[in-house]
Amino acid sequence: MKKQWWHTKTAYQIYPKSFYDSNGDGIGDLQGIISKLDYLKYLGIDIIWLSPIYISPLADQGYDIADYYDIDPRFGTMEDMDQLLREAKKRDMYVLMDLVVNHCSDEHIWFKKACEDPDGRYGKYFYIETVKPGEKLPCNWRSYFGGPVWEKLPGHEDKYYLHVFHKKQPDLNWENPLLREEVYKMVNWWLDRGLAGFRIDAIINIKKALPFKDYPADREDGLARIDQMLHEAKGVGVFLGELRDRCFAPHKAFTVGEVFNEKPEELPDFIGDNGYFSSMFDFEETVFGSSPDGWHKNLDITPDDYRDCVFRTQKKIGDIAFISNIIENHDEPRGVSRYLPEGQRDDASKKLLATVYFLVKGLPWIYQGQELGMENTSFAGIEEVDDIASVNAYQVSLSQGVSVEEALGFVGKYSRDNARTPFQWSAEANAGFTEGIPWLKLNPNYTSINLADQQEDPDSVFNYYRALIALRKNPEYCDTLVYGDFEPFLEDSHDLMAYYRSNRESGQRILVLGNFSTSSRSIPLSFTVQKILLNNIPGNVPEIDEKTGTLRLEACQALVLLM
Length: 563
Ligand code: GLC
Ligand code: CA
Description:
Layout: E1 11-14, H1 30-35, H2 37-43, E2 47-50, E3 54-55, E4 67-71, H3 78-90, E5 94-99, H4 109-116, E6 128-130, E7 141-142, E8 150-152, E9 159-162, H5 177-192, E10 197-200, E11 224-225, H6 226-232, H7 236-251, E12 254-257, H8 267-271, E13 279-280, H9 303-317, E14 324-325, H10 335-339, H11 347-358, E15 363-367, H12 388-399, H13 404-414, H14 417-420, H15 451-456, H16 461-473, H17 478-483, E16 485-488, E17 496-502, E18 509-515, E19 521-524, E20 531-535, E21 544-545, E22 550-553, E23 558-562
Helix pairs in contact: 5-7, 11-16, 12-13
This protein binds alpha-D-glucopyranose and calcium ion.
């Protein structure tokens, strides 16, 4: 693997609508982000990814774009965007936008023109099929947000268009070279403006297995999950290689793909030295236990499962590429609520989770609020939920006989809205996020979990994240923590996540230990400890018995040790 400028950096995802509202309309915005750049710099962030801020009806919160060349007025203006790019540059920070090109919005001019003339130029930008009355739909795929992927084309009784997500997100037809040219033009236009690159949304869906056909139904609705089709679809690499060669490579853009379902042998093609993308997210642990039958059938993830997922990816990746590591994002519940066992979500455990995910090989990402240990929220009724995917999942549970109360409980556990509640800046009204009415209800725990309090407290989760980021950048250890080999340690121990990062060239070796158990334990050491680089329970200096070569690791303790 060739070394790249971004390997040593720390990345941060901003969900603009919920980050900081500068003008009191209850919606976070670009000026809000600009005013918090110094905060991000202080935390140690170098790269920021903004979830979509393009013109959009916000049916899927901006992942439904009506104009790729402009900023939605709710978020600001193009001048604000240019200002953000300038201000970021001044601080040696890099800005990524979200590239959403599997689909656009049904309010995009291309789609409107397609409705006017389905056989014309713009009709061919989409997948539009004729279905005579009484005939069946072209295929039985179920859209990600529920229901069939086919919707009647407005103004045409006998025509249907394809949408693998919501009906307000018509899929773009990548088989059409004219459509691909439109995409490349737009991507280059943004890169020329000074963007460092993109996070690339849902990209694996751009290749469909054609011609359309049915797959075996997997629920009573007679529909089939899209995965079956994606598994058969061949040739996405042709489109992605073209996108790289026409846009990313000439701009030396940094890109990170939202890729699911890739086959292990495809890793070098996706993110090897000349891959389609610079990096991609590791979703191994986020998909763990998820059931196709609905949230009520999901399996909980234990600390051992979590470790096994992370280690599986680490072993698979080796030195091929640099993966992107997360514990949450805007599509997932909060990491501390998911990966820490119930009753164990105190600050020590939050720091423990932070330590073990942050120091494996790859680019560490922080999702806004994660650095405070923000947690899942709760919902009194489904009307408090904004996210379309969650509303659908709730209905799926009900349709399978789950009670309203239980179904809501699953929403509280898995909903994307858990991660979308506004950032908790302070204990003041609305957590200091807005002076207006927040677009989504705050997590009521902002009075106890907020930045203002944590900045003052040297032992806060926030200050621990700062220390963690600083450690990975420390010139004495950087080479090892960024490029050192990943070697699992005591891999079969229950409730323990431990690994070495070893530098083949310098011989430096760093041991990361995380005890997920509520009891202390003795760890056999193969080398002597030279220095404690980080300890999540500073009051508890670990006892090391030189004679027996063992170390006492307290309940929920995490240590980073120079050996
Ligand atoms: C991606 C986004 C998600 C969105 C979907 C459709 O998975 O992260 O938020 O709903 O694509 O664009
Ligand atoms: Ca605003």
